[in-house]
């Protein structure tokens, strides 16, 4: 099973001690072309689920080709902006970007010392990629005085070198060494970024030498996207990190989530068609993708692919297809299926209770009832003449527990995502098995002929299509966080589907009597 990009990024069991919608302040310069500075910060904060605020340090006249002019308003006015915000609003995280000159830095330092926000991310913006200065050279010393107040510093390689007064690193290992030196000097965490190095990968690493992370260096790598559209990547990443950190409270988790989102924003940046130079990244790529009907269902199906492949490779499925499956395994499977269906029926009823429309309520209520009817049918027609333990097996127990836990605490959309694999994977596996039985001339002497015929159930196929459509619609109506939780619930259920088909091989006992 390949790991889902979402499961790494939004683990359901990850610590989530912060606010669902963190209030994040960007203290940065304005980029009127919208790709960097506060404009990029506000988009990034919103894209990652935060409430964005902005105090403007400087105005630039710039576009995707470079910076034409910089205007730094009086620093006291910045202080008035900052005081206006902090006297009224609790700030969960601050991202600091372009500061312009030493008077601005002094005001920001005074305000941070007074307010002490819980999360401070400092992107020490000095020179734009275009080569234009965004911080006066005379202000570099003042900038260093701000570093101890930051929890995380996110310099690019030229900025890292400038802060240390060393030549710029040209290799990843020496960049990490520089990161360690800066982290040791200021006692905080440094994000060393590999964007400026050549090569097919683009690594980033959290570096802390005082034991505040699980390791001194936590490296997260990713592919390098072939694009010119990297304007504002540093701004976007640092504000995304501040937002996720305020929610998650774990820098490693925050970097994984922010980096994965930025990768999508870089990959899809071409669709924006903004400017003739280094264009911006697509901050809201994930929302547009998810709002197309069928797109979320297609992503789910792609995620289920490797699990389906595993299912087809299982001895149980191959034995069912060839007819050589030991009867003991088949009996175990039937008995566990009956137990499972009883639990599944309760979860379907819960989906009905949460359904937003009468059509969906009716669909799930009927599905819940049909589930109990199939359970009775299994007992009446299939299990009454067979020997199989009626004790709940470990996989059945875990699968039903997962479904019940999801239905107890998950939203309608998440419950549907957990329910769906039992429809979708089962329908697909059944379709394939039935097709191969028919292709083989539907032999009447096939040991499981009667069972394989039950897979040709057009009503179940139609119900599966409806369940997929309802799940897709719930994803479109939901938030990004909800879709991530749906993805996790879906993948978890897919894994249980595979385990369920494999359970007879592992747990069916040779001659256990019923009861
Ligand atoms: N071409 C690219 N492909 C993938 N990730 C990139 C690319 N360029 C930059 N990044 C990522 O963007 C973020 C900002 O990196 P960097 O370009 O080094 O900083 P800055 O924008 O401050 O100069 C980092 O997470 C880096 O890994
Ligand atoms: C107003 C403003 N702030 C910061 C930058 C620099 O942006 P950054 O994300 O570091 O990357 P580049 O745009 O330089 O590639 C800026 N240009 N403007």
Walkthrough of the structure:
Its EC number is 2.7.4.7. Catalyzes the phosphorylation of hydroxymethylpyrimidine phosphate (HMP-P) to HMP-PP, and of HMP to HMP-P. InterPro entries: Haem_Oase-like_multi-hlx, HMP/HMP-P_kinase_dom, PM/HMP-P_kinase-1, Ribokinase-like, Thiaminase-2/PQQC. The chain is of the alpha/beta class. It folds into 2 domains: 22-268, 3-Layer(aba) Sandwich (UDP-N-acetylmuramoyl-L-alanine:D-glutamate ligase), CATH 3.40.1190; 295-507, Up-down Bundle (Heme Oxygenase, Chain A). Helix content is 56%, strand content 10%. It has 19 helices and 9 strands. It has a 9-stranded mixed β-sheet with strand order 3-2-1-4-5-6-7-8-9, sandwiched between helices. Helix 13 (327-354) runs parallel beside helix 15 and helix 15 runs antiparallel to helix 19. It is elongated. Bound molecules: adenosine-5'-diphosphate and ligand LCLJCK34. The ligand Cc1ncc(COP(=O)(O)OP(=O)(O)O)c(N)n1 binds next to strand 1 and helix 8.
Spell out the blueprint of helices and strands.
Layout: H1 5-9, E1 23-30, H2 37-47, E2 51-63, E3 66-71, H3 75-86, E4 93-96, H4 102-115, E5 120-122, H5 140-146, E6 152-153, H6 157-164, H7 172-186, E7 189-193, E8 204-207, E9 217-220, H8 233-248, H9 251-267, H10 285-290, H11 295-312, H12 315-322, H13 327-354, H14 358-383, H15 394-409, H16 412-439, H17 449-454, H18 458-477, H19 480-507
Parallel strand pairs: 1-2, 1-4, 4-5, 5-6, 6-7
Antiparallel strand pairs: 2-3, 7-8, 8-9
Helix pairs in contact: 2-8, 3-4, 4-5, 6-7, 8-9, 11-19, 13-14, 13-15, 13-16, 13-19, 15-16, 15-19, 16-18, 16-19
The structure holds adenosine-5'-diphosphate and ligand LCLJCK34.
Pathway: Cofactor biosynthesis; thiamine diphosphate biosynthesis; 4-amino-2-methyl-5-diphosphomethylpyrimidine from 5-amino-1-(5-phospho-D-ribosyl)imidazole: step 3/3
Pfam families: Phos_pyr_kin, TENA_THI-4
Domain Thiaminase-2/PQQC: 315-503
């Amino acid at each position: 099973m390949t790991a889902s990009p979402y499961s790494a990024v939004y683990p359901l069991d990850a610590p989530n001690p912060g606010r669902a919608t963190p209030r994040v302040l960007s203290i940065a310069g304005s980029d009127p072309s919208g790709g960097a500075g506060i404009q990029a910060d506000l988009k990034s904060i919103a894209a990652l689920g935060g409430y964005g605020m902005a105090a403007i340090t400087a105005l630039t006249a710039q576009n995707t080709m470079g910076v034409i002019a910089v205007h730094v308003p009086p620093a006291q006015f910045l202080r008035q902006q900052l005081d206006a915000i902090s006297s009224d609003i609790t700030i969960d995280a601050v991202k600091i970007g372009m500061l312009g000159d030493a008077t601005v830095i002094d005001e920001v330092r005074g305000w941070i010392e007074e307010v002490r926000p819980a999360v401070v991310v400092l992107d020490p913006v000095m020179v734009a990629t275009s080569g234009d200065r965004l911080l006066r050279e005379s202000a570099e010393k003042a900038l260093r005085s701000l570093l101890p107040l930051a929890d995380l510093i996110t310099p690019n390689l030229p900025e890292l070198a400038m802060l240390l007064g060393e030549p710029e690193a040209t290799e990843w290992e020496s960049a990490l060494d520089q990161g360690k030196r800066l982290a040791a000097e200021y006692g905080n965490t440094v994000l060393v970024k590999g964007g400026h190095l050549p090569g097919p990968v683009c690594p980033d690493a959290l570096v802390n030498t005082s034991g505040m992370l699980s390791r001194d260096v936590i490296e997260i790598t990713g592919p390098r996207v072939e694009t010119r559209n990297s304007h504002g990547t540093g701004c976007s990443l640092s504000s995304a990190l501040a937002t996720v950190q305020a929610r998650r409270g774990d820098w490693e988790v925050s970097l994984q989530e922010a980096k994965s989102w930025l990768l999508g924003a870089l990959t899809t940046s071409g669709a924006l068609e903004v400017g003739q130079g280094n264009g911006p990244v697509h901050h809201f790529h994930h929302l547009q993708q998810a709002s197309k009907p069928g797109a979320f269902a297609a992503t789910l199906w792609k995620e289920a692919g490797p699990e389906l492949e595993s299912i087809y490779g299982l001895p149980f499925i191959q034995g069912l297809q060839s007819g050589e499956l030991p009867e003991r395994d088949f009996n175990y499977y039937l008995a566990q299926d009956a137990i499972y269906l009883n639990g599944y029926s309760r979860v379907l009823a819960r989906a009905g209770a949460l359904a937003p429309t009468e059509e969906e309520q009716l669909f799930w209520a009927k599905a819940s009832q049909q589930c109990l009817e199939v359970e009775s049918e299994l007992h009446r027609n299939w299990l009454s003449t067979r020997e199989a333990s009626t004790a709940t097996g470990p996989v059945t127990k875990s699968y039903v527990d997962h479904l019940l836990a999801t239905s107890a605490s998950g939203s309608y959309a998440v419950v549907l995502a957990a329910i769906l694999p039992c429809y979708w994977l089962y329908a697909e596996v059944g379709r394939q098995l039935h097709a191969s039985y028919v292709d083989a001339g539907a032999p009447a002497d096939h040991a499981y002929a009667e069972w394989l015929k039950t897979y040709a159930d057009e009503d179940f196929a139609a119900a599966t299509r409806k369940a997929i459509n309802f799940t897709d619609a719930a994803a479109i109506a939901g938030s990004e966080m909800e879709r991530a939780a749906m993805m996790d619930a879906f993948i978890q259920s897919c894994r249980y589907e595979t385990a369920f088909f494999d359970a007879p091989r592992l747990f069916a006992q040779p001659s256990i009597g019923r009861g």
